[in-house]
Design a protein that fits this description.
heterodimer; A: seven-stranded mixed sheet; B: mainly alpha; Growth Hormone, Chain: A; 2 domains; 16 helices
Chain lengths: ~270, ~400
């Protein structure tokens, strides 16, 4: 079996593990990107990071400005940042590519044989940006195939600080209480798409649950109890339809975030 | 003279006990889901915890009633139940890990089932069969005050202190509840002379199935089940409308909870008196007919203020229903020695109605509309009214007949 084939099998297995852990442990922070391709050994991924930052520049003005304010250590976070509108659909595109794709990141990436996205630690942005979906990813994974098709993982401390999301309060832009995150939903690729926010009610009576598009949330790590900021009007939350447990729930999202998933050039399948 | 003083103090004690128990129960309501969410519990685990609570309380209704029947000292049962509440609240507050939470839910479910029969039995001991309506009116009044005050206290506590503090408050409130039981303990000793709820020793008890198979009890159980089925999801349905239409949904929902309690507190003594004067059926009809009326009004309006105002009818219904359940059961089974078992059986019926109705109404609201759900509930409520009108016999004991067989 070629090394490539082995890698792919391994990646598929890991994708499932990630999905399961995401769903069961409520690890809102886990945000695997491109699990199917995320098999490169850790070290090369790191090397690629600084270059990725430059490469990314053409992606969008937003991303550019974001990058400008962040340090190199965080640069890998930015690759996932998308302009507000299509962040949810296309953020995977920006996952880093090999140096060879330098300058072409904005075009469909990751699909060429060499361009392998790497698993990389992601965390919430220190600099809160509007369109920035908090990018959290799995801990660095070492791709070493074990006999049973499992990954020989290694334990290392997370290079960036992370914070728990589930059960945390959500603030409005003016600091008003907009409720609490009670669930986080991921799509088939394991990417977090929706936060279920429970708000209103009195002593647990009459709570209103709304599905909110993940990119609508900004992160403010300075507040441990309410690290999330949702920039929508309370009116919109109130009048939004209650969340119903179905595969494609009615979701509160940016008006221009309605681009069909098919526009996503990323290799990962969208629902 | 001494007797009078004792029973007066016992009466006051029972008032206080009702108040604090209602306070405590507020903390164990749907707020648990909010608290566990704040502790990063997943929705699945929260659902499991709440289901465990529901199942354990449903399963223990009838056995707990039978158990309370066997206990000679109901005050001790009440004290023990309240202590269990304290343990349960502390388990929630101190260490909300799944094992503790599930265990606390089971403890709370079971002790709720022993507590309400114990309160009813103590009321029967203190007031006797002919004062029962008045006594239950008082119970309902203080319980309503406790519910209203508890909701306000705990709402404020959850908002301004922390979710966890609500459970510490709940645990703390068990102490005054235990304190109010002290005069009752003495009254329970004197209770033997006051008015024994059961037959004297040596007399044979009625067989339990004969009590449970009593036609009046079965019909009433069906009525209570239908009523609860139609009543339970009402608040959930209107709070949805309030959230979408009102300017301050939390406050409006709080008003929807507290307003009926105020009405219950005001109306209960009168309802208790009327039950003695005009009979049970009349009061039952009055209370039950509030339900279709409410459904109709809710279906007709979307105005938040009107929705809250219509909740006043819930207060009337609540006062009637809350008093009629123990009263009718005491009419039917008060002297059989199976009063608590019968109360447990009715409680089981109520539990089934309440458990089934919320998903049913939610389904109607999801697939059709909230208005359809209200009409559905109206039909069930109307069925309950018709059942009372055409099948439910009067259960008020005739004084003369009873005097003749009263033990000396």
């Amino acid at each position: 079996m070629s090394r490539r084939a082995a890698r792919e099998r391994l990646a598929a297995a890991r994708a499932m593990v990630l999905l399961v852990s995401l769903a069961s442990a409520g690890c809102a922070g886990l945000r695997p990107n491109h699990p199917p391709a995320a098999q490169t050994v850790q070290e090369p991924a790191r090397e690629a990071q600084p270059r990725t930052t430059q490469v990314d520049t053409p992606v969008s003005d937003q991303a550019v400005s974001d990058k400008a304010v962040s340090d190199t250590a965080m640069s890998d976070e930015h690759v996932g940042v998308k302009p507000m509108g299509d962040a949810a659909q296309t953020q995977a595109v920006a996952t880093s590519t090999k140096p060879s794709t330098a300058g072409t990141l904005a075009t469909p990436p990751c699909t060429c044989a060499e361009a392998k996205p790497k698993p990389r630690p992601r965390t919430k942005h220190k600099h809160v940006r509007k369109a920035a979906p908090a990018q959290l990813s799995t801990a660095p994974v070492v791709a070493e195939t074990a006999p049973g098709g499992t990954v020989v993982a290694e334990v290392r401390s997370m290079p960036v600080s992370v914070v728990s999301i589930l059960g945390k309060r959500v603030k409005g832009p003016k600091g008003e209480d907009l409720g609490r995150v009670v669930d986080v939903l991921a799509d088939a690729s394991g990417r977090v798409r929706i936060a279920i926010i429970d708000f209103g009610g009195f002593l647990g009576v009459g709570n209103h649950r709304i599905a909110v598009d993940w990119p609508l949330l900004r992160f403010d790590p300075s507040s441990a109890e309410s690290p999330l900021v949702l920039s929508v009007n309370v009116e919109q939350l109130r009048t939004a339809p209650a969340y119903k447990d179905n595969p494609r729930p009615q979701t509160l999202m940016e008006p221009d975030a309605k681009a069909p998933p098919s526009t996503d050039p990323a290799p990962e399948p969208k629902k | 003279m001494l007797e009078d003083q004792r029973s007066a103090r016992a009466s006051l004690g029972l008032d206080g006990f009702n108040l604090f128990v209602a306070n405590i129960q507020t903390g164990f309501g749907p707020f648990i889901a909010v608290y566990l969410s704040s502790q990063s519990w997943t929705q699945t685990s929260i659902g499991l915890a709440l289901s465990i609570g529901t199942v354990s309380s449903m399963a223990s209704q009838v056995p707990a009633g039978a158990l309370v029947d066997l206990m000679p000292n109901k005050t001790r049962v009440a004290a023990f139940s309240v202590l269990t509440f304290m343990v349960s609240a502390l388990m929630f507050a101190i260490h909300p890990i799944p094992l503790f939470v599930y265990f606390a839910e089971v403890l709370h479910g079971i002790s709720s089932c022993t507590l309400s029969p114990a309160i009813a039995a103590m009321s029967l001991v203190i007031a006797g069969r002919f004062g029962m309506g008045l006594r239950l009116g008082r119970n309902a009044r203080y319980a309503a005050i406790g519910n209203g005050v508890g909701a306000a206290l705990m709402g404020a506590c959850g908002q301004y202190v922390s979710e966890r503090a609500v459970f510490y408050l709940t645990a703390a409130l068990t102490l005054p509840a235990l304190f109010t039981l002290l005069p009752l303990r003495r009254a329970a000793v004197a209770g033997a002379e006051l008015r024994p709820a059961r037959r004297l020793p040596g007399e044979q008890r009625t067989h339990y199935w004969r009590v449970l198979a009593d036609r009046r009890l079965m019909i009433f159980c069906a009525c209570a089940m239908l009523f609860t089925f139609a009543n339970a999801p009402m608040l959930m349905l209107i709070s949805g409308t309030l959230t979408a239409k009102g300017t301050n949904p939390s406050l409006l929902i709080a008003a929807c909870i507290v307003l009926p309690q105020i009405i219950v507190a005001l109306a209960s003594p009168a309802v208790g008196r009327c039950a003695e004067r005009y009979g049970r059926r009349a009061i039952l009809m009055l209370g039950f007919s509030m339900l279709p009326l409410r459904c109709l009004l809710f279906a007709a309006t979307q105005n938040p203020t009107l929705l809250v105002a219509v909740q006043a009818f819930d207060g009337i219904a609540g006062a009637c229903f809350g008093i009629m359940v123990p009263l009718i059961v005491s009419d039917v089974a008060g002297r059989t020695g199976h009063f608590n078992l019968s109360l447990g059986a009715v409680g089981f019926g109520i539990g089934i109605g309440g458990t089934l109705s919320t998903p049913a109404a939610g389904w109607l609201a999801d697939h059709f509309s909230t208005r359809t759900a209200f009409f559905g509930l109206m039909a069930v409520g109307a069925a309950a009214v018709l059942l009372v009108a055409f099948a439910m016999p009067e259960t008020r004991p005739r004084k003369e007949a009873d005097d003749a067989e009263k033990p000396p």
